[in-house]
Specification:
With about 280 residues, this protein is α/β, with parallel strands linked by helices. It is about 45% helix and about 20% strand. A 5-stranded mixed β-sheet has the order 4-3-5-12-6, with helices on both faces. Strands 10-7-11 form a 3-stranded antiparallel β-sheet. α8 links the parallel β8 (about 180-185) and β9 (about 205-210). This is LysR substrate-binding domain-containing protein. It holds the Pfam family HTH_1.
Length: about 280
């Protein structure tokens, strides 16, 4: 038996996306091609890897066993390629992001990048998107992961759904008007939440406003307000709400990568590639 590296890459993309359709965009193939590749891998393994129906995708026991091997094989492959392509890359890169993106988007990227390029120094700046954009434009920051607002240019990392969260006892839902914790004025996250509340004719009051995700989460966990956050940053310590709880759907946010104007260093470009490849 020989396991095809390309098939393993598609297999892992399907796990990460939990959808053949979404995985297709990650590996730059059609959904039909992804389905064919998984069928070929299942033929090589001699067992089903996924249990799938029209809406759900889940790993079989064999698929769960293969996942660990597949990720190790792909990681070693990537490390070998980079070791021979840019073995002596050094330098420094300054990257900025809001605290929720730092916590939930960057760790796997930086772990992978640091293993490949240990001589590259990473400086991390934590700030809201509205503060990071001008600093990138001035050349103070090389890269930034931010939320796209109207007229903003950048490379799309992912389109992130928004979810309503509350404390586990949902006590804030019992209050009228509804207390809502919001991000800072001028932010796109605040704009889409306010637009949703307006469309839903929800009576609310602003219970808290800040650029800090951690502070906003504290207010929610204490039962003082509800909030809408990106799906990726909704922790298990809170309850995720739905329209059945009387809350309107909120438009998703585009998470984008912006770069310092002018010529970029090799290290900066390499980190940008890693973010775009591993954060989608």
């Amino acid at each position: 038996m020989e396991l095809d590296h390309v098939l393993l890459k598609t297999f892992v993309a399907c796990i990460d996306a939990m959808s053949f359709t979404r995985a297709a965009s990650l590996v730059h193939r059609s959904p039909a091609a992804v389905s064919m590749q998984i069928a070929r891998l299942e033929e090589q393994i001699g067992a089903r890897l996924f249990v799938r129906d029209t809406r759900n995708l889940a790993l079989t026991r064999t698929g769960e066993e293969l996942e660990g091997y597949a990720r190790r094989i792909l990681r070693l492959h990537d490390e070998a390629v980079e070791a021979f392509r840019r073995p002596d890359m050094a330098g420094s890169v300054t990257i900025g992001a809001p605290d929720d993106y730092i916590s939930f988007v960057l760790p796997p990227v930086l772990r992978h990048f640091g293993a490949l390029f240990p001589r590259v120094e990473i400086e991390l700046v934590c700030a809201q998107s509205t503060a990071l954009v001008p600093r990138v434009e001035k050349g103070e920051i090389d890269l930034a992961i931010v939320t796209r607002s109207a007229g903003m240019e950048g490379e799309l990392i992912r389109r992130e759904p928004m979810v309503w969260i509350a404390s586990r006892d949902r006590v804030a839902l019992e209050r009228t008007p509804l207390p809502v914790a919001l991000f800072e004025p001028g932010s796109q996250a605040r704009a889409v939440v306010l637009a949703a509340l307006g469309r839903g004719n929800v009576r609310y009051r602003s219970a808290y406003a800040s650029f800090s995700y951690s502070a906003l989460l504290t207010i929610v966990e204490a039962g003082l307000a509800v909030a809408a956050v990106t799906q990726i940053s909704a922790p298990s310590s809170v309850a995720c709400l739905t329209e059945e709880d009387g809350l309107p759907a909120v438009e998703p946010l585009d998470v984008i990568l912006i770069r310092r104007p002018g010529s970029a260093s090799i290290a900066s470009n390499a980190l940008a590639e890693a973010i775009l490849d591993r954060s989608a």
